[in-house]
Amino acid sequence: MSEISTKPYMLRAIYEWCTDCGYTPYLAVKVDAATQVPMEYVRKGEIVLNISFGATSGLKMDNDAIHFHARFGGVSREIYVPVNNVMAIYANENGQGMAFEPLLGQAPAAKTPAPVEEIAPVPTLSSVPSAPAPRSDDDNGPDDGGEPPKKGGRPTLTRIK
Length: 161
Prior knowledge:
The chain is mainly beta. The protein has one helix at 7-21; strands at 25-30, 46-50, 56-61, 65-72, 75-82, 86-91, 97-99, 124-127, 157-160.
């Protein structure tokens, strides 16, 4: 029997932890041809999605993919993300969560488990403090206008090795 990946189980566990603690779960996703997301919100081949109960409709986290409906600029869109494309799941409020190496274009492969001594530690996420971003009344999506991020803007993920 082939080995089942632990990644979808970890994604569901961190999602449940976020919701139990009252945090907002976010997914960082590497976008490729298999990913169905609003391309106008993709930056540098990546997108960050709010997957909280209030932001999604019909959220389903399977072993192969995460799919749901969400509103972008007031328009409902169908979202489909292969589990292999997920780079991280974390709580927006404190940055705690789990990071993964995206395996683009690959089907979930069965791997022989490594001995415990050889398993590398899982990187942790930390939030980067930032000044609150100015809010506008017409908050229809990203407000960066295609410009590079400015210091003191939106929080970003920092991968710690």
